[in-house]
Amino acid sequence: MNILVTGGAGYIGSHTCLELLESGYGVVVIDNLCNSNPKSLERVEALTGKKITFYEGDVRDEALLQRIFAENQIGCCIHFAGLKAVGESVAQPWRYYDNNLNSTLVLTKVMQQVGMKNLIFSSSATVYSADNEMPLSETAKTGNCTNPYGWTKYMTEQILSGMCTAEKDWSVCLLRYFNPIGAHKSGLIGEDPRGIPNNLMPYITQVAIGRREQLSVYGNDYDTPDGTGVRDYIHVVDLAKGHVAAVKYTTQHTGCEVFNLGTGVGYSVLDMVNTFQEINNVAVPYQIVDRRPGDIATCYANPAKSAALLGWKTQETLADMCRDAWNWQSKNPHGYSEDSQS
Ligand code: NAD
Ligand code: WQD
Question: For residues 307 and 313, is the Cβ–Cβ distance under 8 A?
Fold first, then answer.
């Protein structure tokens, strides 16, 4: 079966393409490369010895999507394409709503036209309200998002679940990711943020490699064991395997189902820094600074539903995540780019 992967050249998309190919699926990618480099797909091809059919273009381009469906027999679509920087979404809300909502509307319009209605969507733990108890089950309260990015995920979930209510032949999995980090064991594909990283792990690896002077730890006065923020970090390869499990589920069921993809365990910022330093024997200088606006103290998943219905569980440890993130960064000090100015 061929899987259409939107945003397949990106961080999670490229790792998922690799796992799909290794599980015997054909892979067709559409990506406009607004936040990625086509080298990621070349490297996936080199690692697997298999070809990816790549279309450079925008998911909001209806005619291009129609051509892709006409030229390829697609059995399921995984929709990663989207903008994901929280701070940028506050500064550029229209761009985020346009990109993230219209890409889903155009994609599902064309899927409707061609009668292929199996869809997996990249949602986020950010859709959960801040006032829930931990761990977060899929039934926890959602909404009260604090930024436009979060609202695009929340609204897309509403759009897709409403479509499943109206038309019983749709099959949609909404996958709520917790904090994906790490890289493929080969060190050939990994996370390559543009500019200054917003997220913790790429910041740590860039400090370790000498591209940034020191890490700012955003607050040590939270109500957590060491006072720093606690998150559910998940190895990107485990996350990618969760998508392969979701493809099987989606093609065998109908309706809309929500799944958490997380480990169920929370680690603090200082746990991350200490584990990274110990496992890789490299220094990560840091200073404690004020809390980052919008951050919450603690966030981790209850992954029991994914284990029960998808038959999927994470396998990698925090040490694996730290080692693999560093392996990627040290083999590719400037990511996919050879330019040393980034
Ligand atoms: P990424 O930026 O590396 O990948 C997204 C890809 O989509 C990029 O290759 C980009 O070029 C492409 N893209 C964006 N808009 C497009 C459009 N209109 N048409 C075609 N291509 C387009 O991000 P990622 O970390 O791999 O995230 C993938 C998805 O998972 C996103 O939807 C993101 O919101 C979601 N997600 C990510 C995280 C995370 O922490 N990385 C957490 C939760 C959810
Ligand atoms: C993790 C912890 C920070 C950077 C974000 C999005 C969320 C999702 C995943 C897409 C927090 C601390 C961070 C730094 C730090 N993305 N930190 N210094 O905030 O849990 O989630 O990415 O859906 O929507 O909001 O992840 O990696 O930014 O932060 O101390 O330089 O690390 O305060 O406690 P977050 P993160």
Answer: yes
- Select from 271, 267, 272, 265 the least CA-distant residue to 301: 265
Residue in 11, 25, 128, 149 annotated catalytic = 149
Cβ 104 under 6 angstroms from ligand 1: no
E strand or H helix that includes residue 71: helix 62-71
Q: pLDDT of 36-62, one tens digit each?
A: 999 999 999 999 999 999 999 999 999
Average pLDDT (82-103) is 97
Query: What are the pLDDT digits (tens) for 112-135?
Result: 999 999 999 999 999 999 999 999
Question: Which residues have C-beta within 8 Å of that of residue 70, sequence separation ≥ 6?
Answer: none
Ligand nearest to the CA of 100: 1
Residue 119 · residue 59 · CB < 8 Å: no
Determine the longest span between alpha carbons in the chain, in angstroms: 56
Q: Please indicate whether residue 84, judged by its CB atom, sits closer than 6 Å to ligand 2.
A: yes
| Known catalytic residue at 149 | yes
Whether residue 293 is preceded by a cis peptide bond, meaning omega within 30 degrees of 0, is no
Show the beta-strand stretches assigned E in 50-207: 53-56, 74-79, 118-124, 171-177, 179-181
Does 179 sit in the ligand 2 pocket, CB within 6 Å?
yes
> pLDDT digits over 289-342, tens only?
999 999 999 999 999 999 999 999 999 999 999 999 999 999 999 999 976 544
As a residue count, the chain comes to 342
The SS3 call for residue 17 is: helix
Strand order in the sheet with 230-231: 267-268, 230-231, 298-299
CB 289 within 8 A of CB 331: no
What percent of the chain has pLDDT above 70?
Answer: 99
pLDDT band of residue 21 (cuts 50, 70, 90) is very high
Q: Is 52 helix (H, G, I), strand (E, B) or coil?
A: coil
